[in-house]
Amino acid sequence: MKPLKSRSIPYLYLILALVMYVLVPLLFGSNLYLMSLLVASLTIGGIALAWALLGNLGGMVSFGQAAFFGVGSYVSALLTLRCGLPVLPAMLLGGVGAALASLAMLPALRLKGPYFALSILAYAQIFRILATEFRDLTGGAGGLSGIPALPTLPGVDLGSKVGGYLMILTLVAAFVWVYYLIQKSYYGLALKAMHESEDATRVVGVNSSLLKALMLLVSAFMTGMIGAFNVHYINFLEPDYAFGSSWTVIPIIAAIFGGYRTIFGPLVGAVAVYLIDQLILKNLLPSGHQMILGVLLVAMIIFSPSGLVPLLAQKFKRKTHVKA
Which domain does 190 fall in, by range? Predict the structure, then answer.
């Protein structure tokens, strides 16, 4: 058997798209519980993808994705509640709001390693406090209720489980495409060179600070859009939920488990981690199932530091070579 040629790869993506957009709703659309789990896993996957873009291309480990998620949620919710803006434009502006909020974090780009990660984590706490204290605008600790649901498009109610699944799947697919375009662009090449030697890239005229800022903006926009989707999907919002640490920790676990240096790794990791946790581990150990999840992550890091997707790809290549 010959190895897959690059020309066959688009056909694989087309088959994958057909499975996700057509077969999954047809086969599991009536199972509301499973569809809700798929929506949740893709929500985590979208954040994990944004985190991986910042870490893989931007070279920055962030502990503050919850800040972007929360800001995007609040901006979209307030625009629809207070200003009467339609949901879809509000979601887009939620992403823009998260990107603008990330501008406040630009001074942190001077920091590296754990110092940058901790500084971004501090911003998430600051935004949570602001959302709690500005009661007249945000509802304070009591939160916001009655947030408009996702709209109904011709033939599809986006507020339903299947509609929500199709909506978040489309968002994630768009983000994958953006990630791919950036990776293959001049900026992606410059970012890759910057990882090898930031000083050397500066000598040849690459503005590393500007590239990092752009990656931070893109990552914040993606995460803000996911947050905006989520708030119109659940129709409720409060500070501890919007800026909760789980929106940072779980996507990081998913990205590392799946392989954050690949485009599809964070998504595969999110779906695998969340579904395994909710469908299997939670039934086996209701009160401590996340502990088993931690053990699985440690095992993956030990046996395959690059993640699940690279591991599966390596095994597939070995099989094709053996058959050839």
Answer: 26-251
Instruction: Note whether residue 15 is domain-resident.
Output: no
Tell me if residue 75 falls in helix, strand or coil.
helix
Q: Is residue 269 part of a domain?
A: no
Count of domains forming the chain = 1
Can you give the pTM of this predicted structure? Answer: 0.90
Residues 31, 165: Cα–Cα separation, whole Å:
12
Can you tell me the mean pLDDT for 87-110?
93
From CA 297, how far away is CA 290, in angstroms rounded?
Answer: 11
> Which residues are 156's β-sheet partners?
153
Domain assignment present for residue 279? The answer is no
Highest mean predicted confidence (pLDDT) among 3-7, 54-58, 272-276: 272-276
Residue 56 DSSP class: I
Question: Residues 249-299: pLDDT tens digits?
Answer: 899 989 999 988 888 999 999 999 899 888 888 887 777 767 777 788 888
Helix segments in the chain, DSSP class H: 9-18, 24-28, 32-52, 65-82, 87-102, 114-133, 135-138, 161-184, 186-196, 198-203, 208-234, 239-242, 246-258, 265-276, 282-284, 289-303, 308-323
Q: Specify the DSSP class assigned to residue 155.
A: T
Query: To 5 degrees, how large is the angle CA 176–CA 181–CA 184?
Result: 125
Distance, CA of 135 to CA of 139 (rounded, Å): 4
Residue at 175 is within a domain: yes
- Pairing status of strand 156-157 against strand 152-153: antiparallel
Q: Provide the percentage of residues in the chain whose pLDDT is more than 70.
A: 90
What's the pLDDT at 70? 96
Structure tokens at 247: 């929106």
Type of residue at 110: R
Among the listed residues 265, 255, 293, the one whose alpha carbon sits nearest the alpha carbon of residue 63: 255
The residues facing 157 across adjacent strands are 152
Cβ neighbours of residue 67 closer than 8 Å, sequence gap 6 or more: 101, 105, 120, 123, 124, 127, 243
Distances 185 to 57, 62, 68, 134 between C-alpha atoms, Å: 12, 23, 25, 42
